[in-house]
Specification:
The chain is built from 4 helices and 2 strands; from the N terminus they run E-E-H-H-H-H. By secondary structure, it is mostly helical. A hairpin with an 8-residue loop joins strand 1 and strand 2. It is globular.
Length: 92
C-alpha cells in the first residue's frame, strides 16, 4: 500500500493579502488592520478581549485567526512587528 503526502495550502476565513494595502501584508478582510498589528498588541501583553476593545472592528474570531496565522507564519510576522515597533520608536 502506497501512501502519498501532499501539502495542503492553509486557508484562512478572515485573513487576506491585497496588493496596495499595507504593502501587501496580510490583513483582516474588510479592514486595513494588519495581522502584525494584532500580534504586536498580543506580544505586548494584550489579551484577546483587550485587542477587541482596542480594535473594535475586529471580532474575537478574527483575533484568534490572527493568532493562528501567526503560529503558521511566525518568522515573517515577528519581522514585521519588529519593524513597526522600530518605526514607532523613531516617531516618538
Amino acid at each position: 500500500m502506497a501512501y502519498y503526502l501532499c501539502m495542503i495550502e492553509q486557508s484562512y476565513r478572515y485573513i487576506v493579502a491585497v496588493d496596495g494595502i499595507r504593502s501587501g501584508r496580510p490583513i483582516v478582510e474588510g479592514t486595513r488592520i494588519g495581522v502584525h498589528d494584532v500580534i504586536g498588541l498580543y506580544i505586548n501583553g494584550a489579551t484577546v478581549d483587550d485587542i477587541t476593545r482596542e480594535l473594535p472592528l475586529l471580532s474575537r474570531a478574527q483575533v484568534y485567526e490572527c493568532l493562528a496565522y501567526y503560529e503558521d507564519h511566525r518568522a515573517d510576522i515577528d519581522l514585521w512587528v519588529a519593524e513597526q515597533m522600530a518605526d514607532s520608536e523613531r516617531t516618538e
